[in-house]
Amino acid sequence: MVQKYESPVRVYKNPFELVMKAYEMRFPTCDMIPVVKETEIIGEEISEDGAIHVIDRRAKLSIDVPYLLKKIMGVDHLLFRQKNTLDKRGRTLEIDAWNESFCNRVVIKELCIYSVHPENPEWTCFEQKADLDIKSFFGFEGSAEKVAINEYSKNIAKSKDIMEYYINLLSEQGVTHVPIWSPPEGSQKKPENKEEPTVQESTVANGKEKALLRRKSSGIRGELEALHIEESSSSKLEQGYIQMYLGELTPMQESRLVQLKNRVSELLRGKVPSDPVFLRFLRAREFNVEKAREMLSQSLMWRKKHGVDKILNEYELPKVIKDFFPGGWHHSDKEGRPLFILRLGQMDVKGIIKSVGEEGITKLTLHICEEGLRLTEEAAHRLNKPISTWCLLLDLEGLNMRHLWRPGMKALLHIIEICEANYPETLGRVLIIRAPRVFPIMWTLVSPLIDETSREKFLFYGGNGYQESGGLVDYIPIEHIPDWLGGPKITDIPEGGLVPKSHYMPAEEFVKDQSPGPHFLEESYYHSTSLSRGQVHEGVIQIEERGTVITWDFDVLRHDVVFTVYRLRDKLPPIKSPGASASPSQKDSNFTFPEQKDTSVSSTSGTGAGTATTTGVGGNANVSAVKGTEMALDKVQDHKTCLDRTWKENLDYFKVENSIVCHDGESIQGSHVTSHPGTYVLQWKFFDKHHLGPSSVSPLDVIADSLSGTQHKAKIMYYYETLNSVDYRGSMTSLQSCQSGFSTISKISMGKQSSSGVSSAHSDKLHS
After folding, report:
1. Which SUPFAM superfamilies does this entry report, sorted A to Z (predicted)?
2. What pLDDT, in 10s, does the model give residues 741-766?
3. Three-point CA angle 80, 83, 88, nearest 5°
């Protein structure tokens, strides 16, 4: 594989002629370049008017290579040729170099050019390109390539210092000016019968003369295939600019940056990304030019497809985001990077997503990322220092199982995918404070999508550790620390809180959410069912390992329902519904949730310990079991319970989460940490207020229902899933401590039914 090097433009703030005089002081040898042991001039040509001067040198180099490799080579020195073509009229110096030793095994070509700065004639530019192609080298091709690259990189880093050393030495000797070359007096006379050549003709003639002299001086190698350096200066990168605005890079990293910019500029032939963008994509691909180019090309296509370049000008924050999204830009950190604060623990994830949908939350994220790019660029120019990333302060106080809401987590995972693919290396540091015990669950889900380099930028603080030495004060100026974190600064960032349901989009619209634009959820995870009086809908889950977490989320769209969680004494075999199979996403996920869109659902997630099989019961897949025998399917009945009438509570089945009445319009979330393997049943039941007794029902209601002959149907939109204990074994304590059971408090109790809205986290442990 051919290794290429292409330098940025190095600028000497000295005239070309003075730089040339300093350059000649390096020969025949230079103590600052110990690798060059000896040089000799083997050819020299000067044009008639003295404008073109070509010198052909042979250099003897001593390369620092491993002893074994040197013994195999059989030589102590390597021979190189260097041919310098100085054009005094055009004020350029071209240096062609190539290897003579092992030229059949290794091909090294180098081209360096000194020229006048295109915008300031008193300055001098230097550019360098090289190719290294090791075809064969005694079986040590890899080692030889590493040695060559290391030696070359060291010499590149020294070259500017060497040139400046000799310029300063000339100044000490009193030489601060060298006159520009002018033709001899005799050569200025033009023949009487010839017209004066045009500038173009003069340039062409000068080029032919220079090429002729170069050919004449290359007797051993023949005509050198010189490397080409673009003459256009519009897209060139200067080394000083890189160091000031992009940061310190190694010579090879600078070369990769130049190569990527040139390649993309050739392909686009129009508006190209800014230099910090090139550098970010290179860093994301470990400075592999081809991989970075492919990643950047895909990102540019994505930006064009979704109109991302217009989002800063056209996107307007929805009112619900302005009022309830607890995040915003807040000054900068101690390194001058823009600081974004997000109080994730105070964020109503479900409320915001249900209000703006996946489309809205995606646009909000893209707007934040685009604003971050703009702010970092402004900070770099304002402070005259390299700033290409921003800092994120993530406050997790209040984080609990509600934040693991399935659509919310899926949205977060897809947002991370978008950012990793299109905004790489934009986060310089992530400060995560007040992380509760439930956080490891979220981190387990999210961290695999974050590349290793980005994960190294995360700093975690549990409890009040962020207030101590090594905490926020080490990264954020104390005057910018928000008051709710113990600092003096009052922020205008919203406090978050529950989003009123008046902001919610209609349930059907939320399920479909097929508006145009970038989507990160291709399908709905919700299912819906309707229940008439006396009917139930059940989800049957087979738990294989103690500690598996069952979570649920549902909305009551019409009428009232009663929700209960049971555990059966005997394991119920899974229901085999025709055509029900796990989707690819389920097979690859630690979650299990209903697959089909109707009321009959069956899916399996995971293998081995901790797996759980979920089966929707109701519609076309109901179960009736017989007491006293191994649980088996008896018959399929619509909207009937799998709990046999002859069974006794606390003997044949156990109520592990107390019943709760959920009213029309309520949104319910909850979780249960299982203490036994076996069959668990999530049951939704039509709530019949007539069964509460005469004191609870108005006689007029009974008469009205009997006269109308109609019955109201309850409707729910739901999903449920399991978190495998094998993946979250270290977080069971946090799950037990933060179970919220239900998010809404019911005001009606039914016997043993809970009216507090809080699940009994330990009720399953009471029954063995």
Report:
1. CRAL/TRIO domain, CRAL/TRIO N-terminal domain, Supernatant protein factor (SPF), C-terminal domain
2. 333 223 333 343 333 333 333 333 33
3. 155
